[in-house]
Amino acid sequence: MTATAEKAPDKEAEGEGKKKGGKKKLIIIVVAVLAIAGAGYWFFLKPSGPEPPPEPGAILTLDSTQINLSGEHYLRLGLALQLTTTAGEEVDGSKALDAAIELFSGRTLEQVEGHSREKLKDKLEKELEELYEGEVMGVYFTEFVTQ
């Protein structure tokens, strides 16, 4: 029985060695899978750099409109929209006219002339970029007459 008793601890030692080797293999496999997944993300799913700026397309000229200012004054405003190349065939200018009327209505002559005019134009341009979801990249005043 001593021979059998001596062999039993050897089998237990071998079993522990296999368990440790199994854990090492499992860890190596998990690390390899994570590395492959990371590489796959890096090459295939990684977002590309910043979006390129929009390219100018056609210019849509809108009919002039008269906007009431404060103090019985008015503004005759004509607009042209610089569309992007991704803009659809039928871009409706109604949203642009509505935004311009909303922006300029009720302002004083001083608020629409001079340096304020450029600030209002920038504000209108930003609003149109949002309203048209990237189809409009600029706005031009084709007519700007106050009285």
Query: What's the gyration radius in Å?
Result: 35 Å
CATH homologous superfamily placement of the largest domain: Band 7 domain
The CATH topology of the largest domain comes to Tetrahydropterin Synthase, Chain A
Beta-strand portion reads 15-25%
Most strands sheet: 4 strands, antiparallel
What string gives the helices and strands in order? HEEEHHHE
Question: What does this molecule look like?
Answer:
The protein is 52% helix and 22% strand. It is built from four helices and four strands, in the order H-E-E-E-H-H-H-E. Helix 2 runs antiparallel to helix 4. With 147 residues, it is α+β, with helices and mostly antiparallel strands. It is elongated, with a radius of gyration of 35 Å. Pfam families: FliL. It is found in: Cell membrane. This is Flagellar protein FliL. Controls the rotational direction of flagella during chemotaxis.
Key words describing this protein structure:
alpha+beta, 52% helix, single chain, Tetrahydropterin Synthase, Chain A, elongated, four-stranded antiparallel β-sheet
